[in-house]
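Dear U.,

Please find below the material for section 3 of the report. The protein was modelled together with zinc ion; I have listed the sequence and SMILES used, followed by the predicted complex structure.
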Amino acid sequence: MRPQPTPAKRFPSMLRKGQYGQDPQPVYERFWEKVVIPDNPSDCWIWVGTRDKYGYGQISVGSEADNSQRKMKAHRFSFLLHYGEPSPKKPHVLHHCDNPPCMNPQHLFAGTNSDNQWDKVKKGRHHEQAITHCPQEHPYDEENTILYGGRRYCRACQRKRGRERMRRNRAALRETRGEHAASA
Ligand SMILES: [Zn+2]
Ligand SMILES: [Zn+2]
C-alpha cells in the first residue's frame, strides 16, 4: 500500500509556488492547534480560532519577510492541506455540511463559480436574501421560489408572465385568423 502523503511532504511543493511563505511548519501547527476533532471523526471538525463575520475560520499564511502575509479562510487551508490546490475550473472550497467553521476534509469539496453562488443563496448570505418578497409582494418562501443560477425567481410572477404570453399568443392567433378570414 502506498503511504498517504503527509502535510509536511505536501507543503514544499506549495512553497515552490511562493504562496505560503518561507516557514510552513508553524502554519500547519497553528492550524491544528485551532481545530477540535470530535470523538466521532466523521462529525464536523470545529475551528476555534478567529472567525470572520460569516463564521468562517481565518488563518494567516505567508511571511512578513517577503510581504506575502495574508489571511486565508481556514477551511480552504484544510482543503489545501489534505487535497492540494483545487483545479482552476473548481476554485472554490465549499462545505457539504453547510457549517462554515467546519474543517473536516471529508465535508469539503471544490466547486465552480455557480456552485459557490448556490452555496451563498443556501446559506442566506447573499445580499438578495435580505429581500423577503418579490416586487409584486409575493413571498420568497420555499413554495414560491425558483432557484436558478444562484438567484431566486418568484414562481407566482413567472406563472403570471406565462399566462400573459399565452393570452398574447391567442390574441395574435385570433388576429391572424381574422386576417385570413377577411382575405378569403
Ligand atoms: Zn462539517
Ligand atoms: Zn412575484
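For the text of the report, you could mention the following: The first helix runs from residue 7 to 16.

Regards,
Y.
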